[in-house]
Write a structure and sequence with these properties.
With 327 residues, the protein is an alpha+beta fold. It contains eight helices and nine strands.
Length: 327
Amino acid sequence: MLTLAPTFACRRAPSRLIRDCHYTAVRQFMSSSPQTSTPSGDASGPSSLAGTAPDHTAYILLHTRVPPAEYPPRSKSALWRAFTMKARQWGGVVNFAWSPALRVHGAYAGLGEDPQDKRDPRRETYAASVFSIAHRYGRLEIPEISLANLDEIDDALRTLVLGPTPGGASGGEAAAQAEAQAKATAQMAGELDRRLHLFVCTHGSRDCRCGEGGGEVARALARELEKRGIGAKDVVLGEVAHVGGHKYAANLLVYPYGDWLGTVQDFDVPQVLDDVLAWHATSQERLTRAGSDPHSQDLPPPLCPPFWRGRMGLDKDEQLALYSKAA
């Protein structure tokens, strides 16, 4: 008899019976048939989660000194707002993240909420991580980002993700601009970090389902990684602010690949981690062999189909198509 773990009072807990039975019976996502129950009860249709991840070409994380449990419900950060407006134009999403394994900026410890930040917005400064469709097998690190260098960082990331802007300068001037942007991007990036990165939304002040459910999953992941002897040199475990989709809590974001998982619970963690680690090993080999061109390879099937919300670089229709193709 299947026994489900007790749910917490504030969390909307959708029926997991069919999904849990399926996931227990089919142990490996690579060979599983991702058929899950839909709201109508039809187990042959698309997952009720597939297609719910936001369409994005890059995910940028501003590193903070405190975890999301200490974040305000809604950010008033001038830098976050300005960067979000710029990145949105080329498909980038900007968020805050905390992890002991991620470097923070040595001169700033705030969240853009301090009165001093309002008087002098340029003092707000972070180190940041960048994941994008242009480098699906690793993380880029920005050592310092503030309003003072935001335009330069935004231009470099836009070019990295989308390529040189068409219709701009021509001839030698265009070549010089491309070379300068390439140098700026290389300097910003440094060496590509090829570790697996797992981020759980634990932004409890925004929604208690994320705080409680996300917190349970984050702690379960930490315990499971420790039990397996896997440290930060191989897997980075972090927590992020609001990602969208409180009803899908707990949300687990798997980067650098950009697969989003939803409705994960603490008792799911051992099997989910098995699948994620296997995916990471095969993906590193496949993506390295294919090179950095995001269009040079066939799209791999969804990661952990019963929990799969979508993937970076795919819009809703493309996410649904990939899920249906795998099914």
